[in-house]
Write a structure and sequence with these properties.
The chain has 11 helices and no strands. By secondary structure, it is mostly helical.
Length: 207
């Protein structure tokens, strides 16, 4: 009788564990979906705000007027919505729009990249480098920390692709977006191969 109880208890425990695992997975997936949706909405909203600031204030008025208007706007928005709309935050949104003027592109990129990614990316002044790091972040699934490390480590400048004409670089980046082939194929510097956590024999195969 005791053995039967043990078997029943064991079966019940296994059923419970299975139930718990399934529900845990559902909650995790739901949270992930919600986070992605919030990020996409937040990023697109910041892009739209940036567009309005750039097009309606900065493009058509004197610099001093633009700064004054943004400060006033910041004060009103901060009072109502919090510190996320400081003067620096609003100017960052305007720069976000100028760096990524295509709403369609932002709608696509925001499915993979967070607003924090874009905060790092808009620090890049060179158009080709911006395109490089944006494409790599999106294609390789870099975290914000990884993106920052790659930028600080001058990944683009150390790569062989950086030595190519601008048109060739753009063509290679366009190919990368359509395939699963890593742009690391263009990197021959052993330091970079280690930086990207590639296998030791990978470097030999592209010499």
């Amino acid at each position: 009788m005791t053995r039967e109880k043990d078997i029943t208890a064991s079966a019940s425990s296994a059923t419970y564990q299975s139930l718990y695992s399934d529900i845990k997975r559902l909650i995790s997936e739901a949270r992930s979906t919600v986070v992605k949706q919030i990020n996409r909405t937040l990023t697109l909203t910041y892009w739209q705000i940036g567009k309005r600031i750039q097009c309606q204030i900065l493009d058509h008025h004197r610099a001093d007027y633009g700064k004054q208007t943004i400060r006033q706007l910041s004060q009103h928005l901060s009072n109502e919505f919090g510190k996320g709309f400081s003067y620096s935050a609003l100017t960052r949104m305007a720069k976000f729009y100028t760096c990524f003027p295509s709403e369609e592109m932002i709608a696509t990129l925001s499915q993979q990249l967070s607003w924090s990614h874009f905060v790092e990316l808009i620090k890049i002044d060179d158009d080709i480098q911006l395109e490089f790091y944006t494409t790599m972040s999106n294609h390789e699934g870099w975290s914000v920390r990884t993106l920052r490390e790659r930028m600080d480590g001058m990944l683009f400048e150390r790569s062989t692709i950086a030595k190519q004409p601008e048109q060739v670089i753009r063509q290679e980046l366009a190919k990368l977006e359509k395939t699963d082939v890593s742009i690391a194929l263009h990197l021959k510097d052993p330091y970079l191969l280690d930086f990207l956590d590639l296998q030791d024999n990978f470097g030999n195969s592209i010499q």
